[in-house]
């Protein structure tokens, strides 16, 4: 079973630190009148505040993103002693905790600080607590440790989703299909430079699958007879798998506005998708990429009459980050965005719309005719295109009303199923665009607005959309430091990406 990154939850432990004054007195460390200065009043108020803390947590934490662990109550008295049992209590099951949420007041910040120094766990102060947020967050951060504070429960909830995305990224295991090498394809020299650094930095693991072995497994036969693995029991498709291929074909055809390819060719591409699911499970992976030109030049895709475009589309629909062209940068960006947004993402070649003699400079299959048909806008435009859109761009849980067609990738022979999606149906949709720099030290986080789609009626990679951005010059001269493909997510997630960059120690470049 594939362990999907969208199933990851952040384990949060609430901790309340009470303070009980043992004697009647007032002064700079204690305020009140009459019974408010008695020990029994402190005991009562600690109980009330603890219950309110539990209530606030239950009502405000995003339970779709976090798993709330049992709250812990500890207290000290006005001797201000530091008790070892207190730390043992707070550190219960610490290996299972991702984040500690504290509630406390004056005279307890030293405990918060020492907890951070001892255990090096992410921790924060609940919203709207007088003074403690600034006092103690600065104290912990000054020591190079991770601490947070918030003005509201809404901000805290957003940050929980961000830290959940960080955890999901660390649980990402990418199955990389290889031919020539394991770090880049012949169309992705902008790939991550050092995958070992990426593993150390983010926790992502990479596992490799030989392309020729994969192609042999597409055939339903005795799995010990594959030419690349003679005598070994491979992971070939079975007759039962072919029933799933037929079921998926029925579903896709039934939902399509138009089908411009033979069912046989659709099923050949679906064989690729079903096999990839088996191999992801076998390799313990939950993300996928493969090198398009490297594999294409073997002529095996042509021979077997399939491409893996539809595999990428369906993977992303099913919460498995999946990128074209062995673009590992995009796989990781997908892992981040699909977890942050709970939506499937799109990726594409991304270029500024440029003009010569008043007409658009042609970019692959997009030129003046396509621009004129799409929009009357001319300033600050960008073009994003690839043949891997999907039906869950508005959300995994949303009942999709979007129209799509099915068409081949290959012009002459009609093979290689692709989902054709007219982005004009989403005109006006704000999108967030993300890419990780090749050195894995920066994030490019940008915004745009879809103006119109183009290419849904064509074949191969010629489908995508024109979008409006704030400033094309600014966007482009930042974009060139990160690489070609941009991962597109519906909605505005710039704030979340800024917070994620902070938590990962990455510079965030916005446009």
UniProtKB/TrEMBL annotation:
PANTHER family: FUCOSE ISOMERASE (PTHR36120), L-FUCOSE ISOMERASE C-TERMINAL DOMAIN-CONTAINING PROTEIN (PTHR36120:SF1)
Molecular function terms from GO: intramolecular oxidoreductase activity, interconverting aldoses and ketoses
Protein's UniProt name: Fucose isomerase
Any one biological process term the GO annotation gives: monosaccharide metabolic process
Cellular component terms per the entry's GO annotation: cytoplasm
UniProt keyword annotation of tRNA processing present: no
SUPFAM superfamilies: FucI/AraA N-terminal and middle domains
Taxonomic source organism: Eubacterium ramulus
Keyword list, A-Z: Carbohydrate metabolism, Isomerase
């Amino acid at each position: 079973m594939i362990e999907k990154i969208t199933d990851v939850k952040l384990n949060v432990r609430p901790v309340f630190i009470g303070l009980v004054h043992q004697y009647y007195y007032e002064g700079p460390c204690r305020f009140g009148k009459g019974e408010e200065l008695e020990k029994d009043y402190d005991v009562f108020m600690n109980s009330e505040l603890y219950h309110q803390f539990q209530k606030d947590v239950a009502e405000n934490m995003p339970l779709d993103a976090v798993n709330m662990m049992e709250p812990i109550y500890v207290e000290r008295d006005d001797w201000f002693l530091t008790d070892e049992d207190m730390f043992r209590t707070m550190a219960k099951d610490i290996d299972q905790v991702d984040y500690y949420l504290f509630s406390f007041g004056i005279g307890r910040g030293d405990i918060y600080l020492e907890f951070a120094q001892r255990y090096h766990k992410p921790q924060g102060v609940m919203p709207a607590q007088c003074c403690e947020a600034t006092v103690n967050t600065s104290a912990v951060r000054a020591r190079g440790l991770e601490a947070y504070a918030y003005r509201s429960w809404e901000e805290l909830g957003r940050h929980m989703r961000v830290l959940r995305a960080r955890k999901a990224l660390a649980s990402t295991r990418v199955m990389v299909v290889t031919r020539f090498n394991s770090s880049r394809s012949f169309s992705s020299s902008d790939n991550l430079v050092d995958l070992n650094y990426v593993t150390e930095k983010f926790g992502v693991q990479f596992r490799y699958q030989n392309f020729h072995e994969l192609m042999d497994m597409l055939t339903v036969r005795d799995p010990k007879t594959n030419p690349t693995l003679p005598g070994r029991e491979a992971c070939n498709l079975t007759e039962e798998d072919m029933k799933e291929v037929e079921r998926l074909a029925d579903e896709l055809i039934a939902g399509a506005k138009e089908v411009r390819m033979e069912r046989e060719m659709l099923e050949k591409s679906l064989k690729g998708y079903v096999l990839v699911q088996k191999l992801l499970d076998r390799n313990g992976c939950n993300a996928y990429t493969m090198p398009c030109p490297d594999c294409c030049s073997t002529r095996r895709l042509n021979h077997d009459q399939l491409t893996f475009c539809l595999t990428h589309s369906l993977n992303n629909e099913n919460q498995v980050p999946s990128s074209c062209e062995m673009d590992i940068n995009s796989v990781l960006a997908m892992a981040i965005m699909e977890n942050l947004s709970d939506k499937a993402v799109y990726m594409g070649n991304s270029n500024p719309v440029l003009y010569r003699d008043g007409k658009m400079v042609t970019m692959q299959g997009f030129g003046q005719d396509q621009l004129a048909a799409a929009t009357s806008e001319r300033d600050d435009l960008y073009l994003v295109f690839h043949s891997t859109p999907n039906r869950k761009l508005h959300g995994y849980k949303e009942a999709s009303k979007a129209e799509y067609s099915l068409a081949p990738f290959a012009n002459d022979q009609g093979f290689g199923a692709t989902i054709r999606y007219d982005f004009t149906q989403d005109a006006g949709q704000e999108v967030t665009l993300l890419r990780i720099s090749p050195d894995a030290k920066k994030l490019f986080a940008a915004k745009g607005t879809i103006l119109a789609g183009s290419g849904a009626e064509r074949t191969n990679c010629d489908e995508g959309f024109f979008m409006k951005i704030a400033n094309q010059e600014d966007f482009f001269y930042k974009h060139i430091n990160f690489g070609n493909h941009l991962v597109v997510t519906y909605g505005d997630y710039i704030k979340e990406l800024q917070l994620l960059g902070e938590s990962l120690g990455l510079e965030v470049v916005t446009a």
